[in-house]
Write a structure and sequence with these properties.
The protein contains six helices and six strands. 16% of the residues are buried. Helix 1 runs antiparallel to helix 6 and helix 2 crosses helix 5. With 147 residues, the chain is an alpha+beta fold. Strands 1, 2, 3, 4, 5 and 6 form a six-stranded antiparallel beta sheet that branches.
């Protein structure tokens, strides 16, 4: 039973490791950057040039993609969130519609800005992937060990 569990963990852990390496260890980096968000994230505005609604509904309702250009960084970015929340928080200035966002240059990550202070957040997917990667060695020892 223990070996079966180790094999299952190994399959998921190796899959997670391959996925993370293909995505340049992004989830693991986000764990690190979110420990001290004041250091890695900065305030910015996402000027919206395209809105794309997702018609499939899930438990949280309809979600939308908002595409735009970051004011300070001058790069394209996007936000995927609840349509109603995005519509409520879309502001207007002289240029056009925008969303207040936080941007992490190191991870190329844009998140919505609810308040003027960003608090540390936990990325569950990154933590699970990290734990699975750490479990590779003990599981290999368990599988390769002979009775």
């Amino acid at each position: 039973m223990r070996k079966l569990l180790c094999y299952i963990i190994l399959v998921f852990a190796i899959g997670g490791l391959i996925s993370e390496s293909m995505h340049n260890l992004m989830d693991l980096k986000l764990i690190y950057y979110n420990l001290d968000p004041a250091k890695y994230y900065e305030k910015d505005k996402l000027y919206v040039y395209k809105k794309e609604n997702n018609n499939s509904s899930n438990s949280s309702g309809n979600n939308s993609w908002y595409y735009g250009v970051l004011e300070k960084q001058k790069i394209n970015a996007n936000i995927y969130y609840s349509t109603s929340y995005l519509m409520e928080n879309t502001l207007l200035d002289k240029k056009r519609q925008y969303l207040k966002v936080w941007y992490c240059k190191n991870a190329n990550k844009t998140i919505l800005r609810d308040t003027n202070e960003l608090h540390p957040t936990i990325y569950i997917q990154g933590i699970i992937t990290y734990i699975l990667i750490l479990l590779i060695i003990p599981c290999l020892i368990c599988v390769l060990k002979k009775k």
